[in-house]
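worker-3 :: picked Zinc-ribbon domain-containing protein
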Amino acid sequence: MKNFACSHCGNTVYFENVKCMECGSTLGFDTGEMAVVAIAEAGDSTVALDTPIFRKLSSTPSDVPLRYCANAEFGVCNWLTPESESNVFCKACDLNRLIPNLSERDGLRAWRALEHAKKRLVYSLLRFGLPFDGSASAKGPLTFDFVRDSLTGHLDGVVTIDVSEADSVQRELQRQRFDEPYRSLLGHLRHESGHYYWMVLVEERDRLDEFRALFGDEREDYDAALTRHHSAGPTPDWQKRHVSAYASAHPWEDWAETWAHYLHMVDALDTAAAEGMEGHGVHLDLRDDIYSSGTFGALMARWIPLTIAMNSLSRSMGHDDFYPFVIPGAAYDKLAFVHRVIHERTQRSAAPETSKV
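worker-3 :: tokens ->
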């Protein structure tokens, strides 16, 4: 994620901030600019009753009035939306179908954690220019259900996350139970979103032959494959072909794990570039947008030195490795496929329309 600064005083601020600690300005995330902006009240909203409207402090005559997402009142969202829109939710919160039960003792705390992680996922999807509305798939739009005592997973565009995953203690217990080197709330969201974008970028784009050549045949019985994985463990040679043990369970899970891994890489590299971090002499060009430019080979040339440096820093602090993974050749090719289908989709969307003759 790129750096943010208060647009009023220039002080460094963070993605989740609602107030600048230097000048006291009110802050919000504007998806139009893809930046945190300083705002000031400018009246009452005509769309959402009793909701103030704002203007950017650095506004120009062309800037539209803004208001906070309706979920701002719960302290779970700092995103802004145009005041003229009838939808009271921002682009990220509008994807929610079910939220945690706020009458439960930890309901609000869990929702905040879930929402903060989901915002980072949606930020990346927006940077890639990927669709949310399901227009490319008959399965429906990307949707989120945050439900307690549920099975985390995906079905026809609906991503369900068990609320207990927002509890760091419970998440660590699950990590140890499944013998995973890494488990995070953002990782779950990225993984499950991968199932949705398999429908959009692979199935609907008629790329099944290319997919099967790399990941295997997804027509294999999914339930039987997962039962086998959980009872017998991963395939003995999984480290030669997959980014994780769970990726060996079924081609769909291989894709979702690879997809999540790719999003981890891109977001971490974007952050490293914004912070001016370099690994072993690799110079990160701040002019390059890791989300929209460059080959997969160039991305990997930046990624590997960064992970070596970060692992060394983590060990120096007495922590486990920042990046506890090894990418074999077969997984490299799968990651390159994810890179390719995203960038081809983005380039198609950005291409100017030509007139028919």
